Amino acid sequence: MLSLATVGFAINFWAWALLSPLGPLFKDSLGLSAFQQALLVAVPVVVGSVGRIPVGALTDRFGGRVMFPLISAVTIVPVLFLGLLGHSSLVALLVGGFFLGLGGTAFAVGVPFVNAWFPPERRGLAIGVFGAGMGGTAISALTTVRLVDTGGVATPFVVTAVVLAVYAVAAAVLLRDAPGRSVPTEPVARRLADTVRLPVTWQASWLYAVAFGGYVAFSVYLPAYLKTAYGLAQADAANRMAGFVLLAVVLRPVGGWLSDRFGPIRVLVAVFAVVTAGAAVQAFTPPLMPVGTIAFLSMAAALGAGSGAVFALVALLAPGNKVGSVTGVVGAAGGLGGFIPPLVMGALYGAFSSYALGLAALAVVAAITLAFTMTTVRRSLHAHQPGESAGARRV
C-alpha cells in the first residue's frame, strides 16, 4: 500500500509540475514578462495547495482507496487541455494551470492513507518514504523539455495523461484502506473547524510553509533563476533543477527516519540553520561552481529532510481521525509557501535586475522559523509527552 501510494503521489506531482520546465519556452514564444512567467508556474501550486484542505477532509471520510483513483482521473482533463489546446495563449495556460493544480492535492490523500497503515513509532519513516513521491517534479524536469524537442509541445502532456489513466485504474483495483481505519462521522465543515483549533495545525503549517514551500519554490523557479543569473541553457538549467529535486526527495524519508530516532525538533533545528546559511550565501550570487552549487544542494538536502520531519511531528501530535484534515491544512500552507516566492523573485528581478533581496528574505524567514522551532514548537511537544509513545518523547 505504501508503494502504491508513493507511485500515485509521484505521478500526480509529475502532472502538477508540467508547466515549470516549459516556463522559459512559453516566455519566449508568447513574449511573457518575468512576472507573467512566474505567475504561470505558480498558479498550479496555489490551487494544488488550497485544494488539499477539502481533499484531506474528504480522505478522512472516504479513504485513499476512493480518493487516489478519483484525483488521478480528474487530473487527466487539464493535462490534455494544456497539451492539445491550451498552450497558445497566456489566458489558456492560466486556466489550464488552475485545474492542473488538482494533481497537487494527491499529497493530502496519501498522508492519512499511509499514516493509518503504520504504528506511531514508524510513521515518520513511512510518511517520509511516501513524501519521496514529490520526486515526480524531477520526472517532469528531466523529461518534459526532451519530449517537446522530440515530438512537440503536446507530447509530454499526452504521455502524462496516459500514465495517469493507467494508475487510476490500477489504484481502483489494488488499493485498500487500513483495517480499523478511524472514520469521522461529523460534517466536513465541523471537522475543519475543529482542525484549525489544534495548535499542531498552525505550528506545522508554518514549518511546512518554509520547508516544503522552499522546495516547491526552487523546483518551479530554479530553471528561470539559473538561466537569468548564470546564463545557463534551458536544458542545463532544467537538469540542475532535477538534481536539486532528487536530493530533496532522497532526504525526505531520511528526515522522517531521523525524526523517529532522534525527535523531529532536533531535525528541524538543523534544517532551518542550514537553510539560513545557504540562502545568505546565495544572496551574493557567488560563482556557480563550487560555492553556488554547494549552497543550493545544502538547501535541497535540508528542505527535503525538513519536509519529512514536519509530518513526523504531525503523526505524533494530530488525533488519528483528523490526520487528513490536519494534513490538508498543513499541505496547503506548504504549497502556498511555494506560491509566493516565485512571484516575489519575479517582481524583485523586474524592479532591481537582481535576485539578492529575495534570497536574503529567505534567509531571514528561515532564521525566524529556527527560533520558533526552538521555543514554541518544542514546548508543544513537551506538553504532549505524558502518555505518548517513546517516539513522541524524543525531543
Gap between N and C termini: 30 Å
Q: What is the string of SSEs from the N terminus onward?
A: HHHHHHHHHHHHHHHHHH
**How many strands?**
0
Shape: globular
Structural class call reads: mainly alpha
Q: Name the beta content range.
A: under 5%
Give me the number of helical elements. 18
Extract low-pLDDT stretches: 386-395
Overall pLDDT score: 86
Q: What does the radius of gyration come to?
A: 20 Å
Query: What share of the residues lie within helices?
Result: over 70%
Biggest sheet features? none
Brief account:
By secondary structure, the chain is an all-alpha fold. It has helices spanning 2-16, 23-30, 34-50, 52-62, 64-84, 90-100, 106-115, 120-131, 136-151, 154-174, 188-196, 199-230, 234-262, 264-282, 288-317, 323-352, 356-383, 390-393.
Would you spell out the secondary-structure blueprint of this structure?
Elements: H1 2-16, H2 23-30, H3 34-50, H4 52-62, H5 64-84, H6 90-100, H7 106-115, H8 120-131, H9 136-151, H10 154-174, H11 188-196, H12 199-230, H13 234-262, H14 264-282, H15 288-317, H16 323-352, H17 356-383, H18 390-393
Helix pairs in contact: 1-5, 1-7, 1-8, 1-9, 1-10, 2-3, 3-6, 3-12, 3-16, 4-5, 4-7, 4-16, 5-6, 5-7, 5-10, 7-8, 7-16, 8-13, 8-15, 9-10, 9-13, 12-13, 12-15, 12-16, 12-17, 13-14, 13-15, 14-15, 14-17
General description of the model:
It is built from 18 helices and no strands. It has about 400 residues and is mainly α.
Jot down its keywords.
395 residues; mainly alpha; 18 helices; 0% strand; globular
